[in-house]
Please model this.
Amino acid sequence: MTLLGRGYTRIDIDFLLRRLDAGVGTMAAVSGPTGIGKSTLLRALTARARAAGATVSGARALREDRHEPFSLIQQLFTQETRDEAVLTSLTVDLSGASGWLHVAQRAQLALAGMAERGPVVLVVDDIHYADPQSIRCLRHLTARTASLPLSVFVSWDASVESASPILLEMLYESHVSSISLEPLNSDAVAEMIAETLPDPVDTGLATHYHEITGGNPLLISALMEDRQTQPPASDADPPGCGTGSCAGDAFQRAVQVCLHRMGRLARIVAQGVALLGESSDEYQLSELCEAPLGLIRSALRRLQASGLVVGCVFRHERVRDIVLSTIPSATLIEMHHRAARLLHAHGAAPEAIAFHLLAAGPVKDEWGLPVLRDAARHVLAAGQVDLCLRYLKLADASCTDDTTRYEIKAQLAEISSMVEAGRATARYQSLKTSILTGLMAPATALPVAQAMLWNAQVHDAVQIIDTVVRHSDVARPDVAAEMQVTELQIASSFPGVLRAATGAAPAGASLTASPAVRARLQAHQSLLSVLTGNGDAYIAAQAEQSLQTGSLLDGSVRACVVPAVLTLVYSSSLDSAQQAANRFLKDAMDHGLGAWAAVLRGLLGLVALRRGELDVAVEHSSAAVADNPAQALDTHGWLALATLAEAHTSIGNHDKAAQCFATAAAPALFQTRSGLHYLYARGQHHLAGGRPYAALADFMTCGEQMQQWNLDTPVLVPWRVGAAEAWLSLDQREKASALLEEQLAMRGFGSTRARGMALRALASTRDFKERLTILNKSMQLLQSSGDRYELVRCLADLSSAHRAIGDKDKARTAGLRARRMAKVCHADTVPDSLMVAASPLEPTEEWPAKKDHGFDRLSKSEQRVATLAARGLTNREIAQELFVTVSTVEQHLTRVYKKMKVRSREDLPVKLRVSAA
Model:
């Protein structure tokens, strides 16, 4: 350590040495907090005195020598100033009141003799720890040798309140020069760094070091040593500039040295600061450390002066870790217990108390359990899921009441399921026995059953629900509300599971339910309304509004996300569903909720499938089922697997689709709504693979279940379309037509896509003239629904129909549009049969130059719009291509139709001749 940034100190030393060279005795006292550089200054002074030819003797007082009489005098007179007479005087009986005077006189004579040969310098470090006898002797010497070339330089810590009164009298004498060392400022730190480190460093390093050390040279030197021995974490984040990663072994030793030098009380207070953290203050420290407030304040001042502490917290988190590491385990546990009780008595936040309870182990105090549960709720809301689980696990281990303990276990299972579904399955399973034996409250047991249904633990969930129905008072408001939620969830998502439970909840149960339960009731009721054909715009709007705010960390929001998103999907509000699912997916990713991320990816896959974005559907659905074997999937996973299989089938990846069905599905799957999707997807796979009877079996089974469960709506699964296509492949047009006419007679909110699909299939049962009319209606509906893949299929059929009646231009228009749309929906490997149907016909001849088709009368903008429209682009796509609004495109097309004397874009020739402009 150097004297950088201490220009005033150099001046003081030069002045003292000039007096020494002139043969004038002097005394100087160097003061400052621990680690500030007092010893360094004394060493520099000693070196310069020796260089000047002075006789130098140095000593350092130690805390443990305070009770050893004359220990400091003995050190001083066993070096260059060694004097046998003085040392001999220390061996005689000095127990009398004036014993110290005998030694002082001998020392005075010895020093006078030495001074005749040249200047003499006595240097004492940490004189505040010196024994009282030695201090008396030194005071005598400084008072009696003023005429001699004798200089005495000492260092001391003015914050030590136990300093001897005699020492203070000596140091505050008027002839004593006082040199007070202050912490380095940022400029001095920068100068210190520049002199010590070999390579140039960022200017922010000095500021950072100053912030975490308070300008303490000892700590700064340690940081620089660690920096030189530890490689930078990265070029962008060198050690010490942000993360504090440079605070290594040297820094740890420096902190320990500071704490040791400051004494036992300062170390105890530092331990209290480490335990209490940001919540600490001097009053709490006084109670925790069991020391008077005055002593606590004194110790805090020393810690603050040393640069370790600012206010009542450590400047650097590493210091806290170092302090805690020095506390024996048993002592640390007891201190955490005391800290928890102290903070609870002072009304601290639950999280601050729970931190200590977690470190102390099982909770013994009655107030500890509610504190842990409150803390778990708070940290969960803050996104600290792992910490929430740790609090709940400790609460579980500490709870002695069965009912409360099983409530906590249910919470643990629920929170675990947010992160990893597999972790929660075992927890839910372990709760089954306690529920069946009546140890868990019914209002807690029913949500467990609801979760087990989602986890595909159907048999166990049925047993739990049956137990609650048979052995509980379902008229109780809390039980009745949960029973109603359970019934709605079963009806909308697990309709084949438990018909006996329907009606168990008394009417009007929702009237007394909490807001959170009412939100769940509304979410499941909305989904059921859509699935039973009773959906409307208001229900869709309600679902959309419920997804606008909130986080998955909020249980009341979390319970509504899936049914609300599915309500939007089945209502064909795909944009809103996608927006909500993406928002919650980001929420899940931000907070490490892996299980929920998979659920939301599955929902996004379903949205993408219904929009004809096949590659996106594959991407999301694959991610949703990744790393989970089929036998470990929950009902969300089975839905994602069905979506993945259907997307692969639509693309033409039949081998990959087959892999989705390689493992036999669990029987319980076919009691759920996800099972309907699975049957439909498997039917599509069979149909694409040339197995119409197998396909027909799956489609009809799907339909029978939907009819039995009163969920027979094409917005869920258009099974009649699939079955009709299977009949068509068997040349059974009448049977196909009957199914399709039956579906078309079913009108419901959000059925635009399903109607478009039914019309496309129905067209295949009609003659070509009627087929064109039906396909045009289908095209309009599918274009409105946004399903690009189904639109491709319709356009391909339309192209074939036009070609069959000899209208080559319109056949080419539809075929080119089908090809382009196939690329837009990323169906790059659409089945060959579809691509043949969608392929453009051979090019026709150019328009005769003399024939007036009206194209030349179009403006340049109108020509561009007409050309793109003839190629099959939609109005929105034309607007994006030309960087204009959709309204502008519509206005241009209106003028185009009038000037070219056509009724619609389908009448535009495929190959328009663009003018030279």
